[in-house]
Backbone:
């Protein structure tokens, strides 16, 4: 498409050179006039017009003589590339509601999934398990491979573009199950081939999540082998590293070593130093990344702008109790002898796992979501409050809730510091991700609480940290929401406002953009984002969703379709 416009421009210049030839009036689908344009590269903005034709940006500059079917006056507004959510858990929410409401209202136009678990490749046992463990959102698993899942979303209709890493956890379960053991040579070879197939289908690379079982059962050699398979296709490695607390430096070194062995770029998911005794380790983490980058390694990170994370109660318990999968975990939690051992380990410092029960403390573990209707009234309470109501130890309460709900139980862990959030926002190689679903303020989404990052991540950066606190400039924040992640995941023609690029565009009021979601009232949309285009189609108009679903699969560097 972009070449069509270049040819047209060449013909126009040829015509103008001939005697008596006058320039025709250019006509486009949409004109965005008089906006303050941030191209995504971090330079100073400029007032300019942008033309959209079909799914591409057709021209940028003075287009006052052009015409269009739709004209938007963006005077006084910021115009930027669509934002890229580098850590999205919209995998199920997009099946339920393809509008991606909470993200579109923040200017997100691309969801990047695959933190350890991906929606393919799946064998029959994995499909059965996926259905069995579903909570509020119910769906049939109509796909087998990761590429088929992404195409399923596109065919269903989604308002945002979608991309994914292939999960190292997913391919491990595919071949080994939930056992705590090393892969055999044959199993590892099959896992590598699953990665190669995912890369051919358009995966970005390999994603791991090493604080969780069975992800944590993979050693460095296994992860490097999977990353090497992805690197054959230009793919990257991204990881929720083994420890974000007591063994932060060792875990970060493992990620750097995998990049060094394979030559693949590597990114740290939600970079943090968790637990008060570990807060001072963040500066050393910065130094380690800078040293690796100076060595020539392509190491980056992403973050969410909150001092609390969200996960499940599995992070409050050691890995041995979870070996064998969810059902085995629940059965162990019913054993009195094992419960006593578990109580001792949860309440005492130890090595080999990030003990979020101790890092946050039961007063700072907030319950977010349950499968069971009879437990949903506990949503929003702390683990300590539930324990007090039941007259039991909070660690025992955690065990009971997992058993009663037959789920990992969604919780928020308040284990970080606001000072470190500000420090991370100032780092130029850190992009942003919500680590949440693309939610809505209606229907099934009201049955559980989100972390407020689902509704506020990008708006919070732009409003609170850029405008109000001045930690970085607006153009720098936009660069780290657009061209930086686009380059990190090696996608084409996105992440910039440039002639010929896809028309993923956000128009917002930099003076008013604000997040409103809180832990007490998380279901609140951000405001200040006025218009959003995805592939040239408007999905947000004057702050309201249009209902359009023009989202597409965005494929990584190994996709065989690039050869066609």
Residues:
């Amino acid at each position: 498409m972009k070449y069509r416009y270049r040819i047209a421009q060449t013909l126009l210049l040829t015509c103008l050179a001939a005697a008596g030839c006058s320039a025709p009036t250019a006509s486009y689908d949409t004109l965005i006039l008089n906006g303050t344009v941030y191209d995504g590269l971090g330079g100073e903005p400029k007032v300019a017009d942008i033309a959209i034709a079909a799914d591409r940006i057709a021209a940028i500059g003075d287009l006052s003589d052009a015409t269009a079917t739709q004209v938007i006056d963006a005077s006084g507004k910021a115009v930027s590339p669509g934002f890229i959510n580098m850590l999205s858990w919209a995998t199920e929410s997009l099946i339920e509601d393809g509008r991606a409401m909470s993200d579109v209202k923040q200017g997100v136009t691309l969801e990047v999934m695959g933190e350890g678990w991906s929606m393919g490749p799946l064998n029959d046992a994995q499909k059965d398990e996926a259905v069995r463990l579903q909570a509020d959102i119910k769906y049939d698993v109509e796909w087998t491979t990761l590429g088929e899942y992404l195409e399923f979303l596109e065919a269903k209709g989604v308002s945002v573009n979608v991309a994914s890493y292939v999960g190292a956890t997913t391919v491990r379960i595919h071949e080994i199950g939930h056992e705590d053991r090393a892969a055999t040579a044959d199993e590892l070879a099959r896992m590598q081939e699953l990665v190669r197939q995912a890369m051919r289908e358009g995966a970005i690379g390999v994603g791991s999540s090493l604080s969780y079982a069975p992800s944590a059962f993979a050693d460095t050699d296994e992860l490097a082998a999977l990353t090497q398979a992805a690197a054959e296709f230009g793919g990257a490695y991204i990881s929720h590293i083994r420890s974000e607390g007591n063994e932060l430096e060792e875990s970060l070194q493992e990620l750097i070593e995998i990049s060094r062995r394979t030559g693949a770029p590597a990114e740290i998911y939600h970079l943090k130093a968790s637990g008060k005794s570990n807060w001072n380790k963040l500066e050393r983490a910065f130094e380690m990344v800078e040293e690796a980058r100076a060595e020539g390694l392509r190491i980056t990170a992403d973050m969410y702008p909150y001092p609390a994370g969200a996960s499940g109660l599995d992070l409050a318990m050691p890995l041995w109790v979870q070996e064998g999968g969810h059902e085995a975990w629940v059965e162990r939690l019913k054993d009195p002898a094992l419960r006593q051992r578990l109580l001792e380990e949860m309440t005492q410092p130890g090595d080999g796992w990030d003990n979020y029960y101790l890092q946050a403390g039961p007063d700072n573990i907030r319950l977010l979501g349950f499968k069971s209707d009879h437990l949903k009234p506990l949503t929003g309470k702390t683990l300590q409050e539930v324990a007090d109501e039941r007259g039991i130890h909070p660690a025992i309460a955690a065990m009971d809730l997992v058993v009663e709900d037959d789920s990992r139980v969604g919780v928020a862990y308040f284990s970080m510091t606001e000072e470190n959030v500000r420090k991370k926002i100032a780092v130029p190689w850190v992009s942003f991700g919500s680590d949440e679903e693309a939610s809505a303020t209606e229907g099934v989404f009201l049955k559980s609480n989100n972390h407020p990052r689902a509704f506020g991540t990008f708006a919070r950066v732009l409003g609170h940290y850029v405008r109000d606190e001045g930690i970085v400039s607006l153009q720098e924040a936009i660069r780290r929401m657009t061209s930086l992640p686009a380059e990190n995941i090696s996608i084409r023609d996105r992440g910039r406002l440039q002639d010929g690029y896809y028309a993923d565009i956000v128009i917002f009021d930099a003076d008013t953009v604000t997040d409103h979601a809180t832990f007490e009232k998380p279901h609140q949309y951000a405001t200040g984002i006025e218009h959003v285009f995805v592939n040239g189609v408007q999905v947000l108009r004057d702050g309201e969703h249009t209902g359009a679903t023009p989202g597409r699969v965005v494929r990584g560097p190994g996709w065989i379709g690039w050869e066609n």
Q: What stands out?
A: The two ends are 16 Å apart (CA to CA). Residues 2-17 form the longest helix (16 residues). Residues 317 and 346 are 6 Å apart (CA to CA). Confidence is low (pLDDT under 50) at residues 1-21.
